[in-house]
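USER: My hope is that you can spare some time for a protein that puzzles me. I am handing you a single protein, as its sequence and its fold in token form. Walk me, if you will, through where the backbone shape changes along the chain. The protein I mean follows directly.
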Amino acid sequence: MQNSGLIFIPDISGFTEFVTQTEISHSNHIIKELLEEIIDNNSLNFEISEIEGDAVLFYKMGDPPKVEKIIEQAKKIFLAFHTHLKIIERDNICQCGACQTASNLSLKFVTHFGEINEVNVQNFKKLMGSDVILAHRLLKNNIEEKEYLLLTENYLNNFDTDSFGSEEWIEIKDCSNDYENFGEVKSKFISLKKLLSQITESSLKSSNRFRESNYSYSIFIDAPILTVHGVLIDNNSKYKWVPGIKEVTQSTPINRKNSTHTCVFDDLEVHFVTKSNEKMKDEIIYSEQGDPGFGFTIVNDYKLLEKNGGTELTLNLIPGHITKKENFIQRIITRLKMKIALSQTIKGASVSLQNLKVYCESLDI
């Protein structure tokens, strides 16, 4: 067949419901992360025609890879996809709908062989042809499974004999669907559900406890607990309530456990790492550790408690030393710097909480 090639489409299911029913900013970033996982695990070196919102259109011209290779490729992408979802679930601190429901997303694959026409559009190659249209239609079928690898008869007919592999999870089933202008399309599919057992469950459990401190501040905020929590974990919101911030840079757009961000002031940069987040019935404990670069750290422990329709917020400041070799003079200098920085932090804490109160209450008007 002239201009023949393989079309391989990993498709994220539940995407439309995900972006229409949850927060757009976080849902878009989560989908971006998942699409990057799919692309990064392209071990068969497929060409990418385009990214279609919730799917990647891979293709390879010429003779198609054997069935075992396609199964291995689908398995690799599937495991990477669900491993990343478990990382999101494990490290999530955000209470928005997108972050809380990401684990409901699923992944399916369509594999088809046919005629492909590559059309150059500026620096991109656009795939065209009836088989490209059919491959997309195959995503809508009568398979009751949510996650599967579909292999069309057009693809399978390229091999006189071919092995589907001997792994226990592989179970081949037949399916047939009628499509307008194409008629009956026969395929085989393999459920991917059993692969989920190969993903190691997160062994991390929250160990966060709200610790006692000599430096403690409390304030009542007339706003829902999730509003206050959302502002606390949104690093860009610090412009609104932390005095003197000139710039905030962060490692990831979504704040998760072990995420880092830096707050830049006139004469100081404080590097933060998110340590933990624990949500109970009517209480949330959130903790981040700041390092001003003077050989010590200050942990901000926040406890949010639902109370009288609003939020009682308590901040405990916990100073700590970074262990390193220092001579006597260096230890004195470090302690002096720590005393100065702690004094400035304590002075700014009450102002910050007042600013936080005003900002959160303005959001809830």
About this structure: The chain is about 30% helix and 35% strand.
